[in-house]
Structure formats: structure tokens, C-alpha cells
Amino acid sequence: xxxxxxxxKKRIVILGGGMSGVGAAMLATQRGHDVFLSDGGVxxxxxxxxxxxxxxxxxxxxxxxEQILNADVxxxxxxxxxxxxxxxxxxxxxxxxxSEIEFASRFTDEVEIAITGSNGKTTVTSxxxxxxxxxxxxxxxxxxxxxxxxxxxxxxxxxxxxxxVSSFQLDGIKTFKPKIAxxxxxxxxxxxxxxxxxxxxxxxxxxxxxxxxxxxxxxYNADDPAIIEALKIHKPKSKLVPFSMQKQLDFxxxxxxxxxxxNLDTNLFTMPxxxxxxxxxxxxxxxxxxxxxxxxxxxxxxxxxxxLASFQGVEHRLEQVLKINKVQYIxxxxxTNVNATYYALDSMEKPTVWIVGGVDxxxxxxxxxxxxxxxxxxxxxxxxxxxxIVEAFGSCVDNMVETSxxxxxVRVAYNLQVLEITFYYHLPxxxxxxxxxxxxxxxxxxxx
Length: 448
Known about the structure:
By secondary structure, this protein is of the alpha/beta class. The chain is built from 17 helices and 20 strands. Helices cover 35% and strands 22% of the residues. The protein has a 6-stranded parallel β-sheet with strand order 7-8-6-9-10-11, with helices on both faces. Strands 15-16-20-17-18-19 form a 6-stranded mixed β-sheet, with helices on both faces. Helix 9 links the parallel strand 9 and strand 10 (217-221). Its EC number is 6.3.2.9.
């Protein structure tokens, strides 16, 4: 039993006052530990109020090392890299540094279902939660989405905990041991955090199974070469349960005759792909992973089918926001890496104006070239430095415009689209956009 579960009062220092940090502080306080939270920036009003209401000592705008270095354990925000100076000083003082996921797991013996991957983990986490709720399980859903795990453990017990976990959170685990782990895919992402070495990022993802044993399950994508190679290297002890879009399996989930088939025992589960509420090949794979999880939990087949058919999807993931003048506006702001963008562009069936921007994370855009050539008719760049986007896609489209704000980007995209609608004989055309656009578009129309 972890010493955190005993009655021994410990000094817990929380680094970072975001959602995970405040959740950890509230849980530690609830369980009677001595807590101090330190954030080098400014807290959001809601988080500052939560700390004040609970009378939790905290500081902002800097770090008092004397307060920090007398900790028994430090819980670090996933946004703080391991090579940060403050983290290195704590480690040099031989103080354990763990993630909030690890911290919360030490206070519960409930069934943990952990889901990770470069893409799709929010959808699968939400879908697994949806299935368990339809099946009337006592379940909470959180982790890297919604409420933090620590805040959920502090708030109320639940028989099942469905958790989205990121590589940053997995980097800080020591004993975290999910009953069911799901590894969806691994493609280059966050390489700036991993010394620009893909193998380091892969190793981080495989940590989800590092403490599992033969009584646990690892559901994995059998079509992903990075995962297949990593399993040979890391050799998890858990029972391996594959899913595949490309080949039939004697054991696991696969596609046959346009049906999802899951064969884990003599009781075969089948469901037509056309009955899934979420569309696209990537979502078929997501549905297979979620349904396989449900089968391992012995949920009735009809309940699984009902859940897969009724799931409404994830907000901001290929979300059709509105249609104005035959132009469909799609919010895909959850697509924060190349692979997720590939799935989005691949799903476009009509000419697309693509608004793209953000911080480059060392990604290779070459896999997008064919799709951009095929589906994208104009690119609107958003950000302070668009040089890599311009360099990568400048020769793929006829129209590329740089903008400095979301408002300008949407207005430029709208005007490009209006001109192109006339040229293309009023053919409707989707527009991939990021963030909330409805008000921007409506305001722009009022100025016409």
C-alpha cells in the first residue's frame, strides 16, 4: 500500500496551478496532507478561487525553492518538461517527482481504463465512457480531458475510471497500473519535448503498460508499425488484444464484409460499419478499440451496438458548426498534429479552404502533400511565423494568404470562398477552421 493511503501526514508540493495541479492539491488536502502549490505564472480566476476556498497555501509569479525543497513528493504539471531547471533541482535533492495521474491512482483501488495514442484518444475515451454509461456502470471519465483524475477521486468514488492519458502524464508514472490499457497509434508528435527523437516518444507511450501483469489487458493497433516494433522491445506482461483495419485476426477485432468483428471468446460480436454514428476509417478504428474494451468488461453486445450508434462524437473534432451561403464551416481544432490533420483532409469530399496555424513541433508535413494537392484549393495561414507552412505547401495550392488573427483568417477564407463559389458554379465547399467561428462569420456578413 502506498504511504499516501496511510494516515501518515506528508508534505506534498504541487508544481503548476492548472486543472491537474489544483485537482492534486484538493485531493492531497482532503486526505490530510500538508500541501503547497507553486506556479511561476498567473492562475486563472477559477483555480485561484478554488485554492482560496480550500485554504490551500500557494504562490504565483515565481518559485520559493525553500518551500519546495522540503517536500516528501512533488506532483508536476504535465506542461512542465523534465529538463526544466526547477525540476532538475528537485531531482538533485532526491525528492520524487510524479504526475497527477500517478498521484491520484495512489488513492484508489477502482478499475482504471487508460487510453493513449497520438490521435483519437479523446474520441475513444469519450466513447468508452458513453458505452459504460449506457450499460449503467458506475463510471467517471476524465484525465487529460474534462475534469482531472485527482479532482474526480477527491469528488466521489466510482467503480470504473476511464482516463485519457498523454505521453507527458505517462512520463511521470511510477506505479500506475490500468486494468485495461488502450494504445491507438503512435505518429511523430511533441518531438520538441523528446529531443526530436521519435523512439523517445514511442517509449513514453509504451509506459502505459509498464506496470501491467498477466491479469491486465493491452488493446493495441496491429496496423501501426511503430507499435508492433515497440512491443518487441518493451515486451509488456499484459495480455495483448489487437485490432486491425487491414487483416483478419483469430483473436481481437477486425473488419470483414463491411462489419466490425470482435472475437475474444466463442461469442463473436459483429456490427455493420454503416451503423456507426461517427464516420471515416479512423473512427471505425476508434470504434473497434472502444468496443473491444467493452467486450473485455463483458458488456452485452446489444448495449455496445446501441452505444456505437448513438455516440455524438467529440466537440471541436470535425464538428460541423454552421452553413452560410452553401459554405460548410467545420471546426477541427482538436487536430493538433500532422496525423490528425491527415484524417481531416482525407475526409473532405469537396474543395476546401484550409485555415492552419499554431506552433510547429518538429513535424514532417510531406505526408500531407498529396491530400493538399487533391482536396485543398486555398490555404490561409494563421500565426506569427508561417515560414514552414509556406515552404511546405506553397507549391501545392494557387492561393495562400498569411493573416495575424483568427478574425482576419476567417474573413479572408470567407472572401476566397465567395469568389470560388461563383467560379465553381455555386458548388458548396467545406472550410476547415479552428476555434469558435460562428460569431466571426456572422459579423463579417453584416459588414457585406
